[in-house]
Amino acid sequence: MTVETHSDLELEFVQTAHRVLPAGGFGNLASDIVIREGHGGRVWDESGREYVDFLLGSGPMLVGHAHSEVTAAVQAQVPLGTTFFANNRHGIALAAAIVDAVACAEQVRFVSSGTEADMYAMRLARAFRRREKILKFEGGYHGMSDHSLMSLAPKHPGNFPQAIPDSAGIPARVADEVLVAPFNDLEAVEALIRAHHDELAAVIVEPLQRIIPPEPGFLEGLRRITAQYGIVLIFDEVVTGFRFAYGGAQQYYGVTPDLCTLGKVIGGGFPLAAIAGRADIMAHFDRALAGDAGFLPQIGTLSGNPIAAVAGLKTLEILRRPGAYDALFATGRALMAALADQLKRHGIAGQVIGEPPMFDVVFTDGAISNYRGVLKGNAERARRFNGKLRARGIMKGDTKYYVSLAHDEACVRHTVAAWTAALEELAAEGA
Ligand SMILES: Cc1ncc(COP(=O)(O)O)c(C=O)c1O
Predict the structure, then answer these.
(1) What is the mean pLDDT of residues 381-390?
(2) Would you name the residues annotated as active-site residues?
(3) Which is the closest atom of ligand 1 to the Cα of 114?
(4) How confident is the model at residue 6 (pLDDT cuts 50, 70, 90)?
(5) Residue 239 Cα, ligand 1 centroid: separation in angstroms?
(6) Numbers of helices and strands, H then E, in the chain
(7) pLDDT in tens, 33-73
(8) Would you say residue 280 has pLDDT above 50?
(9) Helix (H) or strand (E) segment spanning residue 130
(10) pLDDT bracket for residue 290 (50, 70, 90)
(11) Residue whose CB lies within 8 A of the most ligand 1 atoms, among 56, 58, 115, for a mutation test
């Protein structure tokens, strides 16, 4: 069904949301839309409008919304209890599946969100290294903790390695505990690490930063230099884990960190994330091994709950089936090629960057190897393009298309038609 305007029902929800929620929303997607349901690669809003969904709940729904097998697994568990604050067979099985799949993962600790996973991974590295500083990359996202919200999206980038807080309310001194480096600039990172190695606990990096792939040798270089000084290398695989390959970005790019964080896909659409890595580092979660001074207490009400665990386990089972990643990558490659082709046909300067499971267009001709390259893109044009796509039944986040196994040929056709029409309009408007 195509509905051009908001229904009275959706308008009422939007109005209530603006009364009871700050900025009218949950802090995620714009507040002018209320999603009613999702099936496969599509979602519907409360006005009945249908969208091809490239938001995928910000990434978890890699096998599609309401997948029948995931739903059945959850439905089987619900009558048996939903959370115990105790070990349960499904959480243990999920940890074992992660250890089997992910190269760096000798042990796993569950939490409920990627933010928590990154926060604990950094704390764990500090406990292990008995140093305090963290090196992160400008434009890199590691959730919402005080240390993570540094130079994520500075409007006016400063001088490296000075960290710029992204949020009000963060104690000023936290900025002194974070060093910021340019992504994909191994020379700059290496110089910073050599100068500060004795203060550094960890380097944390998204192996593919937002949608910017690592240049050949960059991750290998980070691995070499951190290993040389015994600095903990943390891959934030909250997005890339089980998405770029069954073994995540560390398998896809062939570089193994000391620790990684996982989220999104491993919870199958339920709240679950994890810190995984070397057993000697993870030992700091065990008072018997770490002693009182080295112990890192970590407790969470919903950690390892059986509902998220069965959803995650079933999702991983689906992903292990022959051809799953081939299909995902084929769809992503077809979409990326079609978007690049349409940009060219319409004479609009833009680059499609990312990897097949997640990508977007950046409206610039200039090189894009780091945050500052993306910043040179025409953000206003991207906003208008996204708006035109939304009106044509394409749901996506501001800066990313997430591809799913449930995006079928009809989804691809609809999307390419929407791109064509929206780019035609952009070109007619003088882009
Ligand atoms: C790379 C990365 N790390 C961490 C997070 C935070 O995860 P969560 O939203 O589950 O707290 C995200 C969320 O999008 C992410 O993309």
Answers:
(1) 97
(2) 141, 236, 264
(3) 7
(4) confident
(5) 7
(6) 14, 14
(7) 999 999 999 999 999 999 999 999 999 999 999 999 999 99
(8) yes
(9) none
(10) very high
(11) 115
The Cα 230–Cα 200 span in angstroms is 9
Q: Which H or E run contains 112?
A: none
What's the pTM value of the predicted model, to 2 decimals?
0.98
Q: What is the pLDDT of residue 1?
A: 43
Pocket test for ligand 1, best of 137, 264, 399 (most atoms within 8 A of CB): 264
pLDDT tens digits along 129-179: 999 999 999 999 999 999 999 999 999 998 999 999 999 999 999 999 999
| Orientation of helix 409-428 relative to helix 379-391, angle to 10° | 130
332: left (phi over 0), alpha (psi -120 to 50) or beta: alpha
Quote the ligand 1 centre to 262 CA distance (angstroms): 9
CA–CA dist 316, 299 (Å, integer): 25
Q: What is the dihedral of CA 327, 333, 334, 338, to 10 degrees?
A: 160
For residue 395, give the DSSP letter. Answer: E
Q: Is 344 helix (H, G, I), strand (E, B) or coil?
A: helix
Closest atom, ligand 1, to C-alpha of 140:
1
Give the residue from 276, 203, 204, 264 showing the smallest Cα distance to 239.
264
pLDDT tens figures, 68-93: 999 999 999 999 999 999 999 999 99
CB 107 within 8 A of CB 123: no
What are the structure tokens assigned to 45, written together? 């809003």
Residue 149 CA, ligand 1 centroid: distance in Å: 12
Question: Do 62 and 404 touch, CB atoms closer than 8 A?
Answer: yes
Task: Tell me, in angstroms, the distance from the centre of ligand 1 to residue 24's CA.
Answer: 22
Give the C-alpha separation, 276 to 116, whole Å: 13
Pocket of ligand 1 (CB under 6 A): 58, 113-115, 118, 141-143, 206, 236, 238-239, 263, 273
- Rounded to whole angstroms, how far apart are CA atoms 431 and 424? 9
